[in-house]
Design a protein that fits this description.
alpha+beta; Aminopeptidase; seven-stranded mixed sheet; 26% strand; globular
Length: 198
């Protein structure tokens, strides 16, 4: 019954795509090209496994990313530094079983070493109370609303202060200790693994 959170693997992208597009109206659909773009560019792209089965995923970007989401742009216009959760999806059969909380705990552990705030949104047009309650219980608060111009969906824009960030920044600056749980960004780790000359 354990939940394991780890980096997504390339061969899992089809399963991730199916999971995303089965999630219903609370999550925007994806096509294979957009998901591939996430795989190639997202700083954070991790999956949750429960009992050996893919049960959810979360995609995130630092505020300096070249990311084309209108909600990301909304946050960037208003806040200088944050980590943005683009989407979290949990398989319907696993909802309420701790998978979402495991993914949020993991992304917060990653983000609070690098950013003062964690940002995300909840769509308000499709019965948002469970999602708003989940985020509120995790310490998020609404900082505004945004109507996404490309799809006409209204979103509650949420932020959470990451209280450990200031201490980590003041103590370590940009040189985090080299211990496994601090984790490099996916892009940095993958760039270091590429053979020279490619």
């Amino acid at each position: 019954m354990s939940i394991v959170v780890r980096d997504v693997r390339e061969h899992e992208l089809d399963s991730v795509l199916a999971l995303n597009n089965a999630a219903g109206p609370a999550i925007l659909p994806l096509d294979a090209a957009k998901l591939r773009q996430f795989y190639d560019s997202a700083e954070y792209f991790r999956v949750a496994e429960r009992d050996g089965n893919l049960s959810g995923f979360l995609v995130g970007f630092g505020s300096e990313a070249q990311h084309d989401s209108s909600n990301f742009a909304w946050f960037r216009e208003r806040f200088p530094s944050f980590f943005y959760i683009d989407r979290i999806v949990v398989a319907s059969r696993r909802r309420g079983g701790g998978v979402g909380r495991a993914l949020y705990a993991d992304v917060q552990s990653y983000a609070e070493l690098r950013c003062p705030q964690l940002a995300c949104e909840v769509f308000l047009d499709h019965g948002a109370d469970p999602a708003l309650l989940f985020h509120g219980s995790f310490g998020f608060r609404e900082v505004g609303q945004n109507v996404m111009p490309d799809v006409g969906v209204r979103a509650s824009m949420l932020m959470k202060e990451l209280c450990s960030y200031a201490w980590v920044r003041d103590t370590y600056g940009d040189a985090l200790p080299e211990v496994p749980w601090t984790g490099q960004s996916r892009r940095v780790a993958r760039a270091e693994q590429r053979p020279t000359g490619t």
